[in-house]
Design goal:
alpha/beta; Rossmann fold; 2 domains; 11 helices; 5 strands; CheY-like_superfamily; two-component regulatory system
Length: 272
Amino acid sequence: MGSPGGSTAGASRTVKPPFSPPPHWQYLNVLVVEDHSAYRLLLGWLLQKLGLGHALVTDGFMGLDAFTSRPFDLVISDCRMPFMDGYSMTRAIRQHEREQGLKRVPIIALTANLQNDSPQRCRKAGMDAWLLKPLTLEQLHAVLVRWLPGGEGRYVEPYAAAAGASWPTRATLVTTFGSDMVVDQLLETLLMEAWEDQRVLRHARVTLNAPLTAERLHRLVGSLVFLGGTGLESSAVSLIEQVQAEGVATHKAQLEVFEARLCAYLEYLSEL
């Protein structure tokens, strides 16, 4: 179960998002289930800053009712609430999804105490990740990027801006491989193969084909490390392990984010 590491004190109301939210986020909706009024207000404010639609409710019963009444793309729930806690609500939501044949919506635990609300307990209930109070915009952003549905490659600019500094340049490639002609040949071959692998990977994700997904991720690792570390290869290796252990559906959102980042990198290489 993923999470951003640790926590920092309080979310400053002067902090601005470190990027322009992906355009498709304006069409997504997040359900917040939290009995503490101050945290409901804070989460509502942060989600508004990030351009996301949202609904705020006060306990698990209301959360379950909201979830079964309209579609949501992600749920953030406090673990401990009166009437129905986050664990019970999550189990009820997972049962509802199974009975209705619905897609699995990510549920993020919100807790102030990882000793009582351990990641293992959250995972057992059916939650996917956790956020630690006191909550910051950076924490929330990191979880949303990982778990919200992707935009099928439509939001690659934030990743390009964040990772571009570590990507190879034309000059470094010429220095490494000796000449412009060799670089052109290598890039042409690498991009042709990588774009095909990306196309097959997307098909494998959509069809929930775990063996094919893992196989194409493995091929892409070879392409990514060929020109030097980008950070994408470590993400691919992690996804291979997760897909092989738990299947594609559980990690579909992570795969969408990886594909968006991969497309940004390949587009960058095509301009070199």
